[in-house]
Amino acid sequence: MTEKKENVAPEYDLNAKWDHCLDLTTRRFVYSSLGGAFAGLLFFRSPVTRWASIAFGAGLGIGSAYTDCSRTFGASSPNIAAPKSTETSVSQAADE
């Protein structure tokens, strides 16, 4: 009647990562939707704009949860840098 549990390092435990991500996504979706509903009731009169504020809040919650979950699973994020300029400045061109 004893269960065998394997000791897996936390960085390789996919079940724990999925549980964490589902919990995080659910909480952020609900809380940000409620925040959007509160803001909609506070600032808008039209039902359409109130629903839009709820949808915007839900999107923010899901987007932030997706970002954190991608970090949890170790996905590399692209490094965005300014493109290197190959043009010479006007003063350098005049000196030559």
TrEMBL record:
It is a single-pass membrane protein. This is MICOS complex subunit MIC10. Its main location: mitochondrion. It is found in: Mitochondrion inner membrane. Pfam families: DUF543. GO terms for cellular component: MICOS complex. Belongs to the MICOS complex subunit Mic10 family. InterPro entries: Mic10. Component of the MICOS complex, a large protein complex of the mitochondrial inner membrane that plays crucial roles in the maintenance of crista junctions, inner membrane architecture, and formation of contact sites to the outer membrane. Keywords: Membrane, Mitochondrion, Mitochondrion inner membrane, Transmembrane, Transmembrane helix.
